[in-house]
Predict the 3D structure of the following.
Amino acid sequence: MACNSQQFGIEELIQNGTLLINDGYRAKNSELSRSGIPFARAGNINGGFHFDDADRVPPETLARVGFKRSKPGDVVFTSKGTVGRFAFVREGTPEFVYSPQLCFWRSGNEKRINSRWLYYWMNGHEFFLQYKGVAGQTDMAEYVSLRDQRAMRITIPPLPKQKAIAHILGTLDDKIELNRRMNATLEAMARALFQSWFVDFDPVRAKLDAPSPSTPLPLAGEGGRRPGEGVFGLDAATAALFPAHFQDSLLGHIPQGWTVEPVGEVVESVGGTTPSTAEPKFWEGGTHHWTTPKDFSSLQTPVLLDTNRKITDAGIAQISSGLLPAGTLLLSSRAPVGYLAIAAMPVAINQGFIAIKCNERASNFFMLNWCQTNMAEIESRATGTTFAEISKTNFRPIRVMLPPKELMAAFTEKVAPLYAQITANLHQSRTLATLRDALLPKLLSGELRVATLESQLGASL
């Protein structure tokens, strides 16, 4: 036990108001909708909160929810099914309602238990041993009951040390969160440019709005309506790549000179497989990345940096598509349909993907945004009774609208730096997370002195 730390029973701390532990609201399906505040389940929790696909609790239901709504400082613990995910409710996190798959630990006295320190303690060894010891007691899915949680014990250091540990680890997490927000902004910028150029046709419409063909097109900073206004102002050379008229096509009115073609005739789409997992030579000592849709479930940005499993040369030889080059766009074709990411490294794939090998006619950045924009069409081509799956045969006929190569190159040139920065931020965040995970057990156990670490890290914190 770290010096000056004291161990307490959780139940004792609950009784004296130092801690509150509870699980979520048992909502009926009839109480949920697609509007309101998120109803958070285990799948929405993975180091942070991801509510894009969450059910919602409408205002008329909130009165029955009571205190089982999130508050800043809550530590969220997934206690059913997928046990052992954590998240910290920061200031500014959108309010949500807890489901029964989630428990929340809430400090009732910040002078005794610092909320952020509590989050790191729950990510530590002492809590891990206790919840793992009870999670698998049944033959069904793992479950850690409220009763079991309240019977646990916690080792609490003095408040100044709690705050110091929270500061050191929290500074690393704050930078990771800043990178995540920056990446969300960068991705939104790329998607907005794609929408402006290739969906709304803003530059073409701006030319149509010009008083006469001889009137110069307003450029960035010149006032008036600009092509792609609100997204990127166009330089004269890029503006010249857009036509001033539309033409009819199978997809309706499109800019003059653009084409509509089956996506399978524009890019190459290939699949993968899973070499026998019973054959050690395919896996043991593997150095090549091999991915499944599971690797994509926690991605916050559409860039794949790493995979859970690696495969050998012999394993690669079992996959017809082989080792795909860095830059390949990967679309999950089942379980579920629709995960998307550009591989930042060479990678092999299992049978759950359509890999899209792009080219100068349709770059990977263009195809990524095209898939995102046309996901409803892609999903509508999926078939299957057990689970939906879109085959390469059903994917290839989907029609894609293509600009001339020069305009495709201009789009790629503008968005490539955005995705390069996204990738750099992801690499930095991985390094910071590795450092945090290495420091956490040493700080909690007292093996590493807080004062020593703060002086060593100095201004970097």
Observations:
- The CA atoms of residues 290 and 348 lie 5 Å apart.
- The chain has three domains: 6-157, 159-246+404-461, 264-402.
